[in-house]
Amino acid sequence: MEREIKNNSAKKKSRNQAIYFLALIIVGAIVVFILWKRGFIGGKPSVQSPQQIIYSIFERPRDSNSSGITQATVSGDIVVIKYNFYPVGISSFQNELGIDLSDKIQIFFKNTSTYKEITILVNGPLEDKLGNMSWKPILSFKFTESLYYMTNWQNFKKQNLLDVAEDVTWFRKLN
Questions:
Q1: 46-84 pLDDT, tens digit each
Q2: Could you write out the DSSP letters of every residue in the chain?
Q3: How far lies 99's CA from each of 9, 72, 93, 115, 117, in Å?
Q4: pTM of the full predicted structure?
Q5: Please, are residues 68 and 62 in contact by the beta-carbon 8 Å criterion?
Q6: Domain boundaries in the chain?
Q7: pLDDT-based confidence at residue 41 (cuts at 50, 70, 90)
Q8: Is 59:113 a contact under the CB 8 Å cutoff?
Q9: Which of 23, 34, 139, 161 has a CA 20 to 30 Å removed from the CA of 127?
C-alpha cells in the first residue's frame, strides 16, 4: 500500500511537471508571436525612406566612370534626381540613355504610388583638351505618372524614352 501511494505521488509529480512544461511552451510561443507581430523579430521588412527607395531603383555609380544616381530630392509628390550617365558608345547618347533609364522609370512608378512625376537631370562625361574628364549637365526631362500609365511597356522601345518624355531640355549636344 505504501508503495502504491509512492507510485501515485510520483505519477502526480510527473503529470504536474508535464503540465508546467506545456504551459512554458505555450507562454513562450505567445511571447514569440507578439514580438513577431510587433516587428521585433523576423517577418516584417524594414521601413525605407523615400530617398532610399529611389537610390535602390536608380542605383549609385560603381565608380567615377559609371552611370548612376548622385542626388535625389523629394518635394511632396515630385522627385528630382541627378543622374550620371556614361554611354557605352554603341549607339547615340539619346538611345543609350533611354535603354538605361526606361526600366528604372517603369519600376519607379510601378513600386511607388506616392509620386506624380520625376525630373531627371542627366550629367554626361566630358573631356577637356588636356584629357581630363568631368561630369557636366547634358539634358533634363520629366516623366509623369499619367505618362507611365499611358505607355504600353510591353511594346515600348526603350530608345524612344526621350521622344515621349516631357519638357526635354538639352544643355549641350553630343556627337
A1: 567 778 889 999 999 998 888 999 999 999 999 999 999
A2: -HHHHHHHHHHHHHHHHHHHHHHHHHHHHHHHHHHHHTTSSSSSPPP--HHHHHHHHH---SSTTS-EEEEEEEETTEEEEEEE----SSS-HHHHHHHHHHHHHHHHHHH-SS-SEEEEEEEEEEE-TTS-EEEEEEEEEEEEHHHHHHS-TTT--GGGHHHHSEEEEESS---
A3: 80, 21, 10, 22, 20
A4: 0.71
A5: yes
A6: 1-44, 50-170
A7: low
A8: no
A9: 161
The class level of CATH for 50-170 reads alpha beta
Is the Cα torsion angle 59, 62, 67, 73 positive or negative in sign? positive
Q: Residue for cell digits 512625376?
A: 117
**136 in Cβ contact with 126 (< 8 Å):** yes
Using CA atoms, how far residue 132 sits from 69, 93, 121, 125, 127, in Å, is 22, 20, 22, 10, 5
CB 96 within 8 A of CB 138: no
Q: Which three cell numbers stand for residue 66?
A: 559609371
Give the type of residue at 30: I
Nearest Cα residue to 138 out of 107, 90, 101, 108: 101
